[in-house]
Design a protein that fits this description.
The radius of gyration is 21 Å and the shape is globular. Helix 4 runs antiparallel to helix 8 and helix 9 packs across helix 11. A hairpin with a 2-residue loop joins strand 8 and strand 9. It is built from 11 helices and 9 strands. The protein is α+β, with helices and mostly antiparallel strands and 386 residues long. It folds into 3 domains: 114 residues, Butyryl-Coa Dehydrogenase, subunit A, domain 1; 98 residues, Butyryl-CoA Dehydrogenase, subunit A, domain 2; 146 residues, Butyryl-CoA Dehydrogenase, subunit A, domain 3, CATH 1.20.140.10. The chain has a 4-stranded antiparallel β-sheet with strand order 2-3-7-6, covered by helices on one side. A 3-stranded mixed β-sheet has the order 1-4-5, with helices on one face. The longest helix is centred in the middle third of the chain and has 35 residues. Its cofactor is FAD.
Protein backbone atom coordinates (compact mmCIF):
# COMPACT_ATOMS: atom_id res chain seq x y z
CA UNK A 1 0.00 0.00 0.00
CA UNK A 2 1.39 3.39 -1.00
CA UNK A 3 2.29 5.78 1.80
CA UNK A 4 0.54 9.06 0.88
CA UNK A 5 3.28 11.06 2.61
CA UNK A 6 6.04 9.46 0.52
CA UNK A 7 5.21 11.43 -2.62
CA UNK A 8 8.69 10.95 -4.07
CA UNK A 9 9.08 7.23 -3.26
CA UNK A 10 12.00 7.82 -0.93
CA UNK A 11 11.41 4.36 0.56
CA UNK A 12 12.33 2.90 -2.83
CA UNK A 13 15.88 4.16 -2.32
CA UNK A 14 16.39 2.01 0.78
CA UNK A 15 17.73 -1.52 1.03
CA UNK A 16 15.67 -4.29 2.60
CA UNK A 17 17.94 -4.23 5.65
CA UNK A 18 17.51 -0.47 6.08
CA UNK A 19 13.74 -0.75 5.84
CA UNK A 20 13.76 -3.59 8.37
CA UNK A 21 15.84 -1.58 10.87
CA UNK A 22 13.54 1.42 10.45
CA UNK A 23 10.42 -0.72 10.92
CA UNK A 24 11.87 -2.41 14.01
CA UNK A 25 12.58 0.92 15.68
CA UNK A 26 9.12 2.22 14.75
CA UNK A 27 7.43 -0.85 16.28
CA UNK A 28 9.38 -0.51 19.53
CA UNK A 29 8.44 3.15 19.80
CA UNK A 30 4.79 2.48 19.06
CA UNK A 31 4.61 -0.16 21.79
CA UNK A 32 6.91 1.22 24.48
CA UNK A 33 7.26 4.97 24.03
CA UNK A 34 4.46 6.71 22.15
CA UNK A 35 1.72 5.95 24.72
CA UNK A 36 3.72 7.86 27.37
CA UNK A 37 5.19 10.80 25.43
CA UNK A 38 2.58 13.40 26.39
CA UNK A 39 2.93 12.40 30.05
CA UNK A 40 6.74 12.63 29.98
CA UNK A 41 6.65 15.96 28.16
CA UNK A 42 4.13 17.48 30.57
CA UNK A 43 6.02 16.19 33.61
CA UNK A 44 9.40 17.24 32.21
CA UNK A 45 10.97 13.82 32.77
CA UNK A 46 13.01 11.29 30.83
CA UNK A 47 12.71 7.64 31.89
CA UNK A 48 16.28 6.53 32.63
CA UNK A 49 15.08 2.93 32.59
CA UNK A 50 14.66 3.18 28.81
CA UNK A 51 18.42 3.10 28.32
CA UNK A 52 18.86 -0.70 28.68
CA UNK A 53 15.88 -1.27 26.39
CA UNK A 54 17.43 0.97 23.74
CA UNK A 55 20.67 -0.93 24.27
CA UNK A 56 19.01 -4.31 23.74
CA UNK A 57 17.53 -2.95 20.52
CA UNK A 58 21.08 -2.09 19.39
CA UNK A 59 20.47 1.66 19.05
CA UNK A 60 23.24 2.97 21.32
CA UNK A 61 26.37 3.60 19.29
CA UNK A 62 24.79 1.52 16.52
CA UNK A 63 27.00 3.02 13.80
CA UNK A 64 30.22 2.21 15.68
CA UNK A 65 32.21 -1.00 15.31
CA UNK A 66 33.18 -3.40 18.06
CA UNK A 67 32.74 -3.23 21.84
CA UNK A 68 29.15 -4.44 21.66
CA UNK A 69 28.11 -1.87 19.05
CA UNK A 70 25.97 -2.95 16.11
CA UNK A 71 28.22 -1.57 13.38
CA UNK A 72 25.39 -0.57 11.06
CA UNK A 73 25.67 1.81 8.12
CA UNK A 74 25.39 5.55 8.62
CA UNK A 75 22.16 5.55 6.63
CA UNK A 76 20.63 2.89 8.88
CA UNK A 77 21.62 4.95 11.92
CA UNK A 78 20.02 7.99 10.31
CA UNK A 79 16.78 6.10 9.71
CA UNK A 80 16.73 5.07 13.37
CA UNK A 81 17.16 8.74 14.31
CA UNK A 82 14.27 9.57 11.98
CA UNK A 83 11.95 7.21 13.83
CA UNK A 84 13.19 8.30 17.26
CA UNK A 85 12.53 11.96 16.53
CA UNK A 86 9.19 11.13 14.95
CA UNK A 87 8.32 10.11 18.50
CA UNK A 88 10.08 12.97 20.29
CA UNK A 89 13.25 15.02 19.82
CA UNK A 90 14.21 14.30 23.42
CA UNK A 91 14.44 10.60 22.74
CA UNK A 92 16.57 11.12 19.64
CA UNK A 93 18.72 13.52 21.65
CA UNK A 94 19.39 10.86 24.27
CA UNK A 95 20.45 8.30 21.66
CA UNK A 96 22.43 10.89 19.70
CA UNK A 97 24.37 12.19 22.70
CA UNK A 98 25.00 8.68 23.98
CA UNK A 99 26.22 7.28 20.66
CA UNK A 100 27.43 10.13 18.47
CA UNK A 101 28.98 12.33 21.16
CA UNK A 102 29.90 10.44 24.33
CA UNK A 103 30.57 7.00 22.83
CA UNK A 104 32.03 8.35 19.59
CA UNK A 105 34.50 10.54 21.51
CA UNK A 106 35.76 7.47 23.36
CA UNK A 107 35.67 5.24 20.29
CA UNK A 108 37.54 7.75 18.12
CA UNK A 109 39.95 9.33 20.61
CA UNK A 110 40.15 7.01 23.61
CA UNK A 111 42.77 4.52 24.71
CA UNK A 112 42.23 0.79 24.43
CA UNK A 113 41.59 0.66 28.18
CA UNK A 114 39.05 3.50 28.05
CA UNK A 115 37.21 1.87 25.18
CA UNK A 116 37.06 -1.52 26.86
CA UNK A 117 35.96 -0.04 30.18
CA UNK A 118 33.16 2.20 28.93
CA UNK A 119 31.91 1.27 25.46
CA UNK A 120 30.38 -2.18 26.11
CA UNK A 121 28.46 -0.85 29.11
CA UNK A 122 27.32 2.22 27.18
CA UNK A 123 26.24 0.16 24.18
CA UNK A 124 24.12 -1.97 26.52
CA UNK A 125 22.60 1.09 28.19
CA UNK A 126 24.09 0.07 31.52
CA UNK A 127 26.11 3.30 31.60
CA UNK A 128 24.99 6.70 30.28
CA UNK A 129 27.34 9.31 28.89
CA UNK A 130 27.22 13.04 28.24
CA UNK A 131 29.38 15.51 26.33
CA UNK A 132 30.58 18.70 27.97
CA UNK A 133 31.63 21.32 25.43
CA UNK A 134 29.19 24.27 25.59
CA UNK A 135 29.73 26.81 28.36
CA UNK A 136 27.51 29.57 29.80
CA UNK A 137 29.43 32.27 27.92
CA UNK A 138 30.78 30.25 24.99
CA UNK A 139 28.35 28.27 22.86
CA UNK A 140 29.08 29.04 19.22
CA UNK A 141 32.66 30.01 20.09
CA UNK A 142 34.09 26.98 21.91
CA UNK A 143 37.67 27.94 21.04
CA UNK A 144 37.53 30.49 23.87
CA UNK A 145 36.20 28.11 26.52
CA UNK A 146 37.09 28.98 30.10
CA UNK A 147 37.25 25.44 31.47
CA UNK A 148 40.89 24.72 32.24
CA UNK A 149 42.90 21.57 32.85
CA UNK A 150 46.26 22.03 34.58
CA UNK A 151 48.87 19.40 35.25
CA UNK A 152 49.74 18.69 38.88
CA UNK A 153 52.41 16.02 38.95
CA UNK A 154 50.98 13.04 37.09
CA UNK A 155 47.40 14.25 37.59
CA UNK A 156 45.15 16.78 35.89
CA UNK A 157 43.10 19.36 37.81
CA UNK A 158 39.99 20.72 36.04
CA UNK A 159 37.99 23.85 36.81
CA UNK A 160 35.06 25.24 34.84
CA UNK A 161 31.38 25.09 33.99
CA UNK A 162 29.50 23.44 31.14
CA UNK A 163 25.94 24.37 30.19
CA UNK A 164 22.97 22.84 28.33
CA UNK A 165 24.38 19.34 28.62
CA UNK A 166 21.95 16.62 27.53
CA UNK A 167 21.98 13.57 29.86
CA UNK A 168 24.24 15.53 32.23
CA UNK A 169 22.57 14.73 35.56
CA UNK A 170 21.88 11.06 34.73
CA UNK A 171 25.28 10.35 33.17
CA UNK A 172 27.78 7.87 34.58
CA UNK A 173 30.62 9.49 32.65
CA UNK A 174 31.15 12.87 31.01
CA UNK A 175 33.49 13.71 28.17
CA UNK A 176 34.74 17.12 29.26
CA UNK A 177 36.64 19.42 26.92
CA UNK A 178 39.11 21.80 28.53
CA UNK A 179 41.85 24.19 27.52
CA UNK A 180 45.39 23.21 28.48
CA UNK A 181 48.78 24.76 27.85
CA UNK A 182 48.97 22.46 24.80
CA UNK A 183 45.53 23.32 23.42
CA UNK A 184 42.08 21.83 23.89
CA UNK A 185 41.99 18.28 25.25
CA UNK A 186 39.28 15.80 26.20
CA UNK A 187 38.90 14.09 29.58
CA UNK A 188 36.65 11.34 30.92
CA UNK A 189 35.11 12.37 34.24
CA UNK A 190 33.12 9.65 36.04
CA UNK A 191 30.06 10.71 38.02
CA UNK A 192 30.85 10.99 41.71
CA UNK A 193 34.36 12.35 41.16
CA UNK A 194 35.02 14.86 43.98
CA UNK A 195 34.37 18.41 42.83
CA UNK A 196 32.22 17.34 39.86
CA UNK A 197 28.50 18.13 40.14
CA UNK A 198 25.55 18.16 37.75
CA UNK A 199 22.45 20.30 38.24
CA UNK A 200 19.29 19.52 36.25
CA UNK A 201 17.93 22.60 34.46
CA UNK A 202 14.23 23.07 35.18
CA UNK A 203 11.55 25.29 33.67
CA UNK A 204 12.21 24.32 30.05
CA UNK A 205 9.58 24.99 27.39
CA UNK A 206 11.34 22.71 24.90
CA UNK A 207 12.87 19.22 25.02
CA UNK A 208 10.93 18.58 28.20
CA UNK A 209 11.17 14.79 27.78
CA UNK A 210 14.94 15.09 27.99
CA UNK A 211 17.45 15.72 30.77
CA UNK A 212 19.44 18.95 30.43
CA UNK A 213 22.05 19.94 32.99
CA UNK A 214 24.72 22.37 34.08
CA UNK A 215 28.03 20.73 34.95
CA UNK A 216 30.38 22.27 37.50
CA UNK A 217 34.02 21.29 37.96
CA UNK A 218 35.80 22.66 41.03
CA UNK A 219 39.36 21.38 41.49
CA UNK A 220 38.41 18.05 39.93
CA UNK A 221 41.49 15.86 40.13
CA UNK A 222 41.90 13.18 37.48
CA UNK A 223 44.65 10.65 36.85
CA UNK A 224 46.72 10.94 33.69
CA UNK A 225 44.84 8.08 32.05
CA UNK A 226 41.57 10.05 32.19
CA UNK A 227 42.74 12.08 29.20
CA UNK A 228 41.59 10.99 25.73
CA UNK A 229 45.03 10.38 24.24
CA UNK A 230 44.12 10.93 20.58
CA UNK A 231 42.08 14.12 21.08
CA UNK A 232 44.19 17.14 20.20
CA UNK A 233 42.80 20.57 19.42
CA UNK A 234 39.32 21.88 18.67
CA UNK A 235 38.93 19.59 15.66
CA UNK A 236 38.38 16.66 18.01
CA UNK A 237 35.14 17.86 19.65
CA UNK A 238 33.95 19.42 16.39
CA UNK A 239 34.28 16.05 14.64
CA UNK A 240 32.03 14.59 17.34
CA UNK A 241 29.48 17.34 16.73
CA UNK A 242 29.42 16.49 13.03
CA UNK A 243 28.43 12.94 13.97
CA UNK A 244 25.50 14.25 16.01
CA UNK A 245 24.49 16.79 13.37
CA UNK A 246 24.27 14.02 10.81
CA UNK A 247 21.64 12.25 12.90
CA UNK A 248 19.69 15.49 13.23
CA UNK A 249 19.42 15.73 9.43
CA UNK A 250 17.35 12.55 9.57
CA UNK A 251 15.67 13.21 12.89
CA UNK A 252 14.13 16.47 11.72
CA UNK A 253 12.50 14.58 8.84
CA UNK A 254 10.92 12.25 11.38
CA UNK A 255 9.47 15.11 13.42
CA UNK A 256 8.07 16.73 10.27
CA UNK A 257 6.59 13.42 9.08
CA UNK A 258 4.85 12.83 12.39
CA UNK A 259 3.35 16.33 12.32
CA UNK A 260 2.09 15.91 8.77
CA UNK A 261 0.67 12.46 9.54
CA UNK A 262 -1.33 13.88 12.44
CA UNK A 263 -2.51 16.91 10.46
CA UNK A 264 -3.55 14.82 7.45
CA UNK A 265 -5.52 12.36 9.59
CA UNK A 266 -7.22 15.25 11.41
CA UNK A 267 -8.06 17.06 8.16
CA UNK A 268 -9.75 13.96 6.79
CA UNK A 269 -11.91 13.57 9.89
CA UNK A 270 -12.66 17.17 10.86
CA UNK A 271 -15.90 18.32 9.21
CA UNK A 272 -16.74 21.98 8.66
CA UNK A 273 -19.41 23.44 6.38
CA UNK A 274 -20.60 19.92 5.64
CA UNK A 275 -17.36 18.41 4.37
CA UNK A 276 -13.92 17.33 5.69
CA UNK A 277 -11.48 20.24 5.83
CA UNK A 278 -9.10 18.09 3.74
CA UNK A 279 -11.46 18.77 0.82
CA UNK A 280 -10.94 22.55 0.94
CA UNK A 281 -8.42 24.14 -1.39
CA UNK A 282 -6.59 26.17 1.26
CA UNK A 283 -6.03 23.06 3.38
CA UNK A 284 -4.86 21.07 0.37
CA UNK A 285 -2.39 23.84 -0.51
CA UNK A 286 -0.90 23.59 2.97
CA UNK A 287 -0.74 19.80 2.80
CA UNK A 288 0.72 19.76 -0.72
CA UNK A 289 3.44 22.29 0.10
CA UNK A 290 4.39 20.37 3.23
CA UNK A 291 4.34 17.04 1.42
CA UNK A 292 6.79 18.29 -1.20
CA UNK A 293 9.02 19.88 1.45
CA UNK A 294 9.02 16.66 3.50
CA UNK A 295 9.97 14.62 0.45
CA UNK A 296 12.87 16.87 -0.52
CA UNK A 297 14.18 16.91 3.08
CA UNK A 298 14.05 13.11 3.14
CA UNK A 299 15.91 12.91 -0.18
CA UNK A 300 18.59 15.23 1.20
CA UNK A 301 19.00 13.10 4.32
CA UNK A 302 19.32 9.87 2.32
CA UNK A 303 21.84 11.51 -0.01
CA UNK A 304 23.96 12.62 2.96
CA UNK A 305 23.72 9.09 4.35
CA UNK A 306 25.03 7.63 1.13
CA UNK A 307 27.86 10.16 1.07
CA UNK A 308 28.80 9.27 4.64
CA UNK A 309 28.69 5.55 3.95
CA UNK A 310 31.00 6.19 1.00
CA UNK A 311 33.44 8.21 3.12
CA UNK A 312 32.77 11.37 1.11
CA UNK A 313 30.63 13.48 3.45
CA UNK A 314 32.04 16.97 4.11
CA UNK A 315 31.29 19.19 7.14
CA UNK A 316 29.63 21.91 5.05
CA UNK A 317 27.28 19.29 3.60
CA UNK A 318 26.22 18.27 7.11
CA UNK A 319 25.63 21.96 7.85
CA UNK A 320 23.46 22.24 4.75
CA UNK A 321 21.44 19.22 5.87
CA UNK A 322 20.91 20.44 9.42
CA UNK A 323 20.12 24.01 8.38
CA UNK A 324 17.58 22.99 5.75
CA UNK A 325 15.89 20.05 7.41
CA UNK A 326 15.45 21.54 10.88
CA UNK A 327 14.25 24.85 9.48
CA UNK A 328 11.73 23.11 7.21
CA UNK A 329 10.61 20.70 9.93
CA UNK A 330 9.89 23.62 12.25
CA UNK A 331 7.87 25.35 9.54
CA UNK A 332 5.90 22.16 8.91
CA UNK A 333 5.19 21.70 12.63
CA UNK A 334 3.83 25.23 12.89
CA UNK A 335 1.71 24.89 9.75
CA UNK A 336 0.30 21.57 10.90
CA UNK A 337 -0.77 23.21 14.13
CA UNK A 338 -2.91 25.66 12.11
CA UNK A 339 -4.75 22.75 10.46
CA UNK A 340 -5.55 21.37 13.90
CA UNK A 341 -7.03 24.69 15.02
CA UNK A 342 -7.58 25.04 18.75
CA UNK A 343 -7.03 21.31 19.27
CA UNK A 344 -3.46 21.84 18.14
CA UNK A 345 -2.42 23.51 21.39
CA UNK A 346 -3.07 20.37 23.46
CA UNK A 347 -0.79 17.42 24.13
CA UNK A 348 -3.37 15.16 22.49
CA UNK A 349 -1.73 16.10 19.19
CA UNK A 350 2.02 16.16 18.52
CA UNK A 351 2.74 19.15 16.18
CA UNK A 352 3.10 21.87 18.83
CA UNK A 353 5.19 19.53 21.01
CA UNK A 354 7.42 18.92 18.01
CA UNK A 355 7.54 22.66 17.24
CA UNK A 356 8.64 23.42 20.80
CA UNK A 357 11.31 20.72 20.62
CA UNK A 358 12.55 21.85 17.22
CA UNK A 359 13.21 25.33 18.59
CA UNK A 360 16.01 23.68 20.60
CA UNK A 361 17.14 21.48 17.72
CA UNK A 362 17.42 24.65 15.61
CA UNK A 363 19.94 25.98 18.14
CA UNK A 364 21.96 23.05 19.44
CA UNK A 365 24.77 21.29 17.59
CA UNK A 366 25.41 24.63 15.88
CA UNK A 367 22.88 27.43 15.50
CA UNK A 368 21.27 28.19 12.14
CA UNK A 369 23.44 31.30 11.97
CA UNK A 370 26.66 29.30 12.38
CA UNK A 371 25.63 26.71 9.80
CA UNK A 372 24.73 29.53 7.41
CA UNK A 373 28.27 30.87 7.80
CA UNK A 374 29.77 27.41 7.28
CA UNK A 375 27.90 27.20 3.99
CA UNK A 376 28.85 30.79 3.17
CA UNK A 377 32.52 29.96 3.65
CA UNK A 378 32.17 26.90 1.40
CA UNK A 379 30.63 29.12 -1.29
CA UNK A 380 32.90 32.16 -1.06
CA UNK A 381 36.12 30.99 0.55
CA UNK A 382 35.79 33.66 3.24
CA UNK A 383 35.21 32.84 6.91
CA UNK A 384 32.72 35.39 8.28
CA UNK A 385 32.34 34.14 11.83
CA UNK A 386 33.45 37.47 13.32
Amino acid sequence: MRDPLDLLDVAGLLTDEERQIQATVARFLADRVRPHLAEWFEAGTFPRELAPELGRLGLLGMHLDGFGCAGTSATAYGLACLELEAADSGLRSFVSVQGSLAMYSIHRFGSAEQKQHWLPRMAAGEAVGCFGLTEPDFGSDPAHMRTRAVRDGDDWVLNGTKMWITNGSIADVATIWAATEDGIRGFLVPAGTPGFTARTIKGKLSLRASVTAELSLVDVRLPADAQLPEARGLRAPLSCLNEARFGICFGAVGAARDCLTVALDYARERVQFGRPIAAFQLTQQKLADMGVTLGTAALLAIHLGRLKDGGRLQPHQVSAGKLNNVREALAIARECRTILGGSGITLEYSPLRHANNLESVLTYEGTSEIHTLVIGEALTGYAAYR
